[in-house]
């Protein structure tokens, strides 16, 4: 009986050691993957900052004005003036649709109800 108990205990210890070994390496792999993702996120933020700076540089008003003047024959772009804008009163909104009204008292005897005070 003792021999069987010793054998079972030995196999249990070996099994637990194998499980702990696999869990250790799985955890190290997950930590490595997380570090790789953090690095990729930092790189993406860096690229995004460069793209934002480039976008701001390309959309400078003086540059756009010069481009509009150079390509006036093709684009026919004119500068905007305040008198070109309308007021809110000039906007024609579509009429609101009429909603069907239902009788609230359908199936209710109104005569038995008390008036609010």
UniProtKB/TrEMBL annotation:
This is Cell division protein FtsL. The lineage of its organism: unclassified sequences, metagenomes, ecological metagenomes.
């Amino acid at each position: 009986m003792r021999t069987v108990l010793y054998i079972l205990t030995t196999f249990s210890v070996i099994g637990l050691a194998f499980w702990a070994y696999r869990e250790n390496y799985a955890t190290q792999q997950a930590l490595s993957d997380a570090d790789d993702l953090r690095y990729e996120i930092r790189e993406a933020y860096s690229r995004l900052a460069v793209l934002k700076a480039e976008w701001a540089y390309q959309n400078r008003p003086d540059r756009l004005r010069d481009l509009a003047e150079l390509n006036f024959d093709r684009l026919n772009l004119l500068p905007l003036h305040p008198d070109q804008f309308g007021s809110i009163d000039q906007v024609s909104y579509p009429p609101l649709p009429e909603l069907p009204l239902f009788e609230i008292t359908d199936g209710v005897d109104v005569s038995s109800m008390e008036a609010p005070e």
